[in-house]
Design goal:
The complex is a heterodimer. Helix content of chain A is 60%, strand content 12%. Chain A has 20 helices and eight strands. Chain A has an eight-stranded mixed beta sheet with strand order 3-4-2-5-1-6-7-8, with helices on both faces. In chain A, helix 15 links the parallel strand 6 and strand 7. In chain B, helix 9 runs antiparallel to helix 10, helix 11 packs parallel to helix 13 and helix 12 runs antiparallel to helix 13. By secondary structure, chain B is α/β, with parallel strands linked by helices. The longest helix of chain B is centred in the C-terminal third of the chain and has 30 residues. Classes of the chains: A alpha/beta, B alpha/beta. Chains A and B meet through helix 3, helix 7, helix 10, helix 12 and helix 13 of A and helix 5, helix 6, helix 7, helix 9 and helix 10 of B.
Chain lengths: 383, 323
């Protein structure tokens, strides 16, 4: 398995994707820090990271702009920083507002959109708008050419698939071409469209109330001047995602469920013809083969060495539990590698402490940026 | 339908009741992704079912994790019996929408005509929060003694495996938000009714599932206060899942560290594993203490289960520890 720096050789964009709770934010930050340490100018885009990680990167009180992580922080942890690490916390609402401001033909139409209640809801809460805005920001930063590498920590979607569909869903939503016709106050269009549509409209009105329908109509009218701009931009965002200089890394955990999700997500990437780079499995109990005991006499051997049978029993019991998990992880990862038809699985062990500072990121990077032989040696405590 | 296991009377022994939480009609189980929310929701369901309550566990994210625990084929938008007194349903928003509109219109043919109309589906999809609203509407319907759907079963308890945090607060907030968007009309008053259901402490409870790690603890504390501030929901209980046993004392860990340094092979590996375990157990206890300091709801701990895959057995083990 190549190390992360080999996978990312010549790439402009690295997108870390996976389901929630698998350590995606930490992995993204570690990759960005590692690549920056190797001499690149890197920016990591993250959404709502845990506060201590944010603090450790100097991300406190940060708006929707990239800011540089103080190189001295790295020195304090004994990390040589040859490049630059920048980080930003994405504000989806602010990004959406900026986008509207850029696309609006004039101030009046911009304000009509920004003040619309439906817009205020979707820019905050519509499923997919966060994902769409993450990619929008990615596109903007990429176009600016300020960085050698952008690392995107994708939002924690319920389903990894949501993230890939987000731009499409949102543009479809905003387009609303067929709908705008019916929303025209004259009602003429509704007549043309036939009885079925007007019945549907009146039933919908009966259910949600006239008020909401009027707001929706106003929203689509206000947005009408921007539809083409949005579409063109979404198209460019999509081609950026499919570009060979972009790389998707799938992040997962070693349990059955996250592994299945990683397999599913990989399949979706392939179907969408998006460039898959590799898979990172976090919190692995490993390697089982190096931990397999010599069988029944372990407890006896421990008892002899420790002179305490009770303690020896507990150590053996603990070890048996650990081995069972290590074997499960090995099985699951083997299944993953087979499904993905790759040997390219990077395993990061379950560390003794959870990671929330630059020191922890450096610890993770010992695995992400090491050859596989080296990774096993480190985990087995031989390096 | 096959029940994968039966409920033996011996299982009833040793179960301590949870009056505050499971005596309510409706319980939302929420938390960050990957913390074991589904397992805890199912365990709560098993616990209540074994106490004799007719219980249904609802999934709303269409991932069918609960049926997976029971090795069951997908349940879909049906109430399927998983064990004695325990049912499961996967609430699909589109199906909920169809059902809701039918209940409103009362005429199936008219409903079907409506759903064939592109404009209706488009409007329904374009209205922010409508899908979540009808999903919560379905949960409300399940919790009625006087069910709206024909020949609907009566449940004593409805447990909801709610979407992960981030979406989580948004989900419970939907009725409130929606009542504000739709200022008039039938859906406005229905949204208000659902908001009252969610904030009704006597009948509705909320539990957060967390892990003993830095980030999940922070997120749990933030979620609890957001729920209180933004939705008006007081969290009843926090389950800290996956807590390691404290197998070794500090002195023992030090001895084992020394042993690991001087040994080779499996003795060394076992000693190292023990030292790691000790370190994790300690840092987990520190996170538990942090969590208790930062939240108002009582925190209950659930043990880490050294089982390769969490299935029915794990849910049973946890069910017994929920007291």
């Amino acid at each position: 398995m190549p190390a992360v720096d080999e996978i990312l050789e010549g790439k402009d964009i690295c997108i870390c994707a996976g389901s929630g709770g698998v350590g995606k934010t930490t992995t993204s930050a570690a990759i960005a820090a590692g690549m920056a340490a190797r001499g690149l100018r890197v920016c990591v885009l993250t959404i709502d990271p845990a506060k201590r990680l944010a603090d450790s990167l100097g991300l406190r009180e940060l708006g929707n702009e990239a800011s540089r992580v103080d190189p001295e922080l790295f020195e304090q942890h004994g990390i040589e920083m040859k490049g630059e690490l920048w980080a930003m916390m994405l504000d989806a609402k602010a990004t959406f507002d900026e986008l509207v401001a850029r696309q609006a033909p004039g101030e009046e139409s911009r304000d009509r959109v920004l003040n619309n209640r439906i817009y205020q809801q979707i820019s905050n809460a519509l499923a997919g708008s966060q994902e769409y805005m993450a990619m929008e920001k990615l596109f903007e930063l990429h176009t600016s050419g300020r960085f050698d590498l952008l690392v995107l920590d994708t939002p924690p979607t319920r389903n990894a698939l949501d993230f890939l569909d987000a731009p499409k869903r949102l543009t479809q939503f905003i387009e609303g071409r067929s709908l705008r016709v019916f929303m025209k106050p004259t009602g003429l269009a509704a007549k043309v469209a036939g009885r079925g549509a007007s019945v549907a409209l009146s039933v919908f009105k009966r259910i949600v109330g006239f008020d909401l329908l009027a707001d929706l109509a106003e929203f689509f009218n206000a947005f009408s001047g921007m539809v083409d701009g949005f579409q063109a931009r979404a198209k460019r965002v999509n081609s950026l995602l499919a570009d060979p200089h972009t790389c998707f890394l799938v992040v997962c955990g070693p349990q059955g469920e996250p592994i299945d999700e990683a397999v599913y997500f990989h399949r979706k990437l392939v179907e969408a013809k998006l460039p898959f780079g590799g898979v990172i499995v976090n919190k692995v109990h490993y390697p089982a083969e190096h931990l397999r005991g010599d069988g029944a006499d372990l407890e006896g051997a421990l008892g002899e060495k420790l002179g305490d049978e009770d303690l020896a029993g507990r150590v053996a019991e603990n070890f048996a539990g650990y081995q069972a998990l290590a074997e499960r992880d090995a099985r699951n990862i083997e299944h993953l590698a087979k499904e993905l038809r790759t040997k390219g699985v990077i395993r990061v062990p379950y560390l003794d402490e959870d990671v929330h500072d630059l020191g922890g990121l450096a610890e993770i990077n010992r695995y992400l940026f090491a050859s596989s032989e080296r990774r096993i040696e480190i985990a087995a405590g031989r390096a | 339908m096959t029940a994968r296991f039966s409920c033996h009377s011996s299982k009833l022994l040793g179960i301590t009741p949870i009056p505050e939480l499971l005596d309510k009609r409706l319980v939302f189980v929420t938390g960050k992704g990957g913390v074991g929310k589904t397992t805890v929701a199912v365990a709560l369901g098993l616990h209540a079912a074994e106490e004799g309550k007719r219980t249904i566990v609802c999934e709303v994210s269409s991932q069918e994790n609960a049926s997976r625990i029971f090795d069951h084929t997908e349940v879909g938008f049906h109430e399927v019996e998983m064990a004695e007194n325990l049912w499961s349903i996967s609430i699909d928003p589109d199906e909920s929408m169809r059902e809701y509109v039918l209940l409103q219109l009362k005429v199936r043919a008219m409903r079907d005509m409506l759903f064939r109309s592109r404009i209706f589906s488009y409007l329904a999809a374009a209205t922010p929060g409508l899908k979540e609203l009808v999903t919560i509407g379905k949960i409300w319907e399940l919790a009625q003694f006087d069910r709206k759907v024909k020949s609907g079963r009566k449940y004593d308890l409805v447990i909801v495996d709610a979407p992960a945090t981030g979406h989580g607060i948004g989900f419970l907030q939907t009725p409130r938000t929606f009542a504000a968007i739709a200022r008039v009309g039938p859906i406005h008053s229905q949204a208000q009714q659902l908001d009252r259901l969610i904030t009704d402490q006597e009948h509705t409870g909320t539990a957060i599932v967390a892990l003993p790690e830095e980030m999940p603890v922070n997120e749990t504390a933030a979620l609890e206060s957001e729920l209180r501030r933004e939705v008006g929901v007081a969290v009843d209980r926090i389950y800290l899942n996956g807590l390691y046993p404290e197998r070794f004392s500090k002195e023992e860990a030090e001895r084992l560290a020394e042993l690991a340094d001087g040994e080779n092979g499996s003795v060394r590996a076992a000693a190292r594993a023990a030292v790691s375990e000790h370190g994790r157990a300690r840092s987990q206890r520190a996170q538990l203490a942090r969590l208790r300091r930062r939240v108002e709801a009582p925190v209950k701990t659930l043990p880490f289960l050294f089982e390769p895959e969490l299935g029915v057995e794990a849910a049973h083990t946890l069910a017994k520890r929920l007291g």
